[in-house]
Amino acid sequence: MESVDAYVTAMKKLGRSVAVDNIQLRFAIQRGLRPELIGHVIQSQPESVDDLIKAALIAEAAASAMAAAKPETSLDKVITEYCSIVLYSVMACCVVLGWVIGDGAV
Asked: Which domain holds residue 91?
């Protein structure tokens, strides 16, 4: 995933090579932003390339913070832990009842 800084630097360089004005550059940069950033940028209604960059950097920081704040627990992890608990409970019951586990039938 490309950072806003890297993307904007590349777009500015490209813009200079084809001699676009700041309005065209602003729309080109905005159009190529990552989907999770574009909403904040559009909402901020940037009037210059610098305004757009500031909004994009804020959106990028917010997206990073949100990603870091998400819990590590996925549904697969929850199911795996639940199955482990159930299996352990069944095995404990078998031991208490004296049933054979492993090579013999339960």
From this structure: 72-106
Distance in angstroms (rounded) separating the CA atoms of residues 16 and 6: 16
The tens digit of pLDDT for each residue in 3-19 reads 999 999 999 999 999 99
Which of 26, 82, 80 is closest to 49 using CA atoms? 26
In total, how many domains does the chain have?
A: 2
pTM exceeds 0.70: no
> What is the helix (H) or strand (E) element at residue 14, kind and residue range?
helix 4-18
10 Å CB burial of residue 36 (0-12, 13-18, 19+) is middle
